[in-house]
Amino acid sequence: MKLIVAIIQPFRLEEVKEALYAADVQLITVSEVLGHGRQGGVTEVYRGNKETGNLLRKIRLEIAVNDEYVDKTIRAIIDGAKTGELGDGKIFVYQLEDCIRIRTEERGPAAIG
């Protein structure tokens, strides 16, 4: 079992969700987060003054999958999120020690679905 965490551009969320659904990955958690990578933030004009913000809006996806879904989940995220421009995001893959479905108390791969 793995936990896949992806940080993507907000405007690519719908494309990523469609790609995940097409790959038969249905269970995702989505959070709005702030951060920046190599692009270093953004410069905006507010009341005629330039202001540099160092944090950008991003979307964080958390997806727990069984081992046979890891590669196709990663591929779906890349296909949906990639623009080829700076700031497309990152994907992190963590070993998932356990998963418990609260309703049934199932554990392990069966709890993921």
What's the CATH topology label? Alpha-Beta Plaits
CATH architecture: 2-Layer Sandwich
Task: Specify Rg, calculated over alpha carbons.
Answer: 17 Å
Series of H and E elements: EHEEEEHEH
**How many structural domains can be distinguished in the coordinates?**
1
CATH secondary-structure class: Alpha Beta
Low-confidence stretches: none
Let me know the number of strands. 6
Shape: elongated
Can you put this structure into words, describing what you see?
- This protein is of the alpha+beta class.
- The protein has a single domain, classed as Alpha-Beta Plaits (2-Layer Sandwich).
- The chain contains three helices and six strands, in the order βαββββαβα.
- The chain has helices spanning 13-22, 70-81, 109-112, and strands spanning 2-8, 29-35, 42-46, 49-53, 56-65, 89-95.
- The strands form two sheets. The protein has a four-stranded antiparallel sheet, with helices on one face. Strands 3-4 form a two-stranded antiparallel ribbon.
- β3 (42-46) and β4 form a beta hairpin.
- α1 (13-22) runs antiparallel to α2 (70-81).
- The radius of gyration is 17 Å and the shape is elongated.
- The relative contact order is 0.31.
- The mean pLDDT is 90.
Core attributes:
elongated, alpha+beta, 113 residues, two-stranded antiparallel ribbon, 3 helices
